[in-house]
Write a structure and sequence with these properties.
globular, 15 helices, Rossmann fold, alpha/beta, N-(1-d-carboxylethyl)-l-norvaline Dehydrogenase, domain 2
Length: about 375
């Protein structure tokens, strides 16, 4: 039995706190909202994120960072990925010696293309880091439905310690030393789930979804291999397991966000309807850039679109692989008019595009190998 601090009181942080309590640990959860913290302590619920599900009586919450960091030297990170560096920098003076950091985050930092463990290592100057990842939908896990996860760390001893912290009768944790592969798989699956959701929102069926998921898994494996990670991680819980859950469940935030985006073509509406952190949106561009750096043929295309009202700026769209459901109908957004980013010494050309049934389909690489149908549009806030 250990003392554990969970930093973040959102949907996932609270769910992880429950699992840790059920595993026999003493858990203190830190959150910014005094109202939410009071609800957890007094009513044992977190209705904003987890409806009326009853949390363990032993779970305590606080808004005091000093209290949280004094409570234990085991810290479970459950804050939005794009805020991790800023938070760690502010927290560094309070961190206890020999602290263990366990990341639950699935994303890539957009400004630096860094993985979450890389940020922790650089900011806190430590290698005592682990991740826990897998096909874990919070709304199911909080009901204590059977699930599995992978605890990955640079050393097997650290991974086994994390396994012991989280294992419960309903939550089985496996171990791995392939931090890189597990982390990449978790980040990429969020983007693919976003694309699957967009295809659903556009009215496409299971054939399209199956193609997206299958080719997406292939892309995860190739990207892991290119980074000298274990390609078999793509076939495990961190890869295929997480991908199937995120792409197949309406409880997935990334898929739900993609559905709204594909149906409405509006980032504003998608953000309004999915009022939770959606890592795939923020990580899409970073994932594409990471792939380009190691020579994986992800198609990054920059183009402008002509719409019925003026754009504030040219829209940038990163396309995962080359066969794309571009997610905006030609009737809504007009014709594509300019392609400017050269790839492999070749510029995009008009023949790379065909308008079919008022939907734009793009083949930008001239290759027929390893095509993934998907669309990642993170920069269309301008619409």
């Amino acid at each position: 039995m250990s003392k554990v601090v969970v930093l973040g009181a959102g949907q996932w942080g609270t769910t992880m706190a429950q699992v840790l309590c059920d595993a026999g640990n003493h858990v203190l959860m830190w959150g910014r909202s005094q109202e939410l913290v009071d609800e957890v302590n007094n009513k044992h619920t977190n209705s904003k994120y987890l409806d009326d599900n009853i949390l363990p009586v032993g779970l305590k919450a606080t808004t005091s960072l000093s209290e949280a960091f004094e409570y234990s030297n085991i810290y479970v990170l459950a804050v939005p990925a794009q805020t991790l560096r800023e938070n760690l920098t502010a927290w560094k003076p309070m961190v206890q010696p020999n602290a263990l950091f366990i990341s639950t985050l699935k994303g890539i930092e957009l400004s630096t293309m860094s993985r979450m463990t890389e940020i922790i290592s650089v900011v806190l100057e430590t290698q005592n880091i682990a991740i826990i990842t897998g096909p874990n939908l919070a709304n199911e896990l909080v009901l204590r439905q059977p699930a599995g996860a992978v605890a990955a760390a640079p050393a097997i001893g650290i991974a086994e310690k994390v396994q012991q912290l989280f294992t419960t009768p309903y939550y089985r944790v496996y171990t791995s030393v392939d931090v890189l592969g597990c982390e990449l798989a978790g980040a990429i699956k969020s983007v693919i789930a976003l694309a699957v959701g967009m295809s659903i929102g556009m009215g496409y069926g299971e054939n399209t979804q199956a193609m997206l998921i299958t080719r997406g898994l292939n892309e995860v494996a190739r990207l892991c291999a290119a980074h000298n990670a274990d390609p078999l991680s793509a076939a495990g819980l961190a890869g295929m397991g997480d991908l199937v859950a995120s792409c197949g469940s309406p409880l997935s935030r990334n898929r739900t966000f993609g559905e709204v985006l594909g149906r409405t073509g509006s980032m504003a509406q998608a953000r309004e309807q999915v009022a939770k952190t959606v890592e795939g949106v923020a990580s899409a561009g970073a994932v594409a850039e990471i792939a380009h750096r190691v020579g994986i043929d992800l198609c990054g295309v920059y183009f402008g679109v002509k719409v019925r009202r003026p754009l504030k700026r040219e829209c940038e769209m990163h396309l995962l692989e080359c066969f794309i459901l571009a997610a905006f109908t030609a009737t809504k957004f007009g014709r594509l008019k300019q392609f400017s980013r050269p790839r492999n010494g070749r510029k995009m050309a008009e023949q790379d595009f065909c308008l079919t049934d008022n939907r734009v389909m793009i083949d930008g690489t001239g290759s027929r190998q390893d095509h993934l149908v998907g669309a990642v549009m993170f920069a269309n806030e301008c619409f």
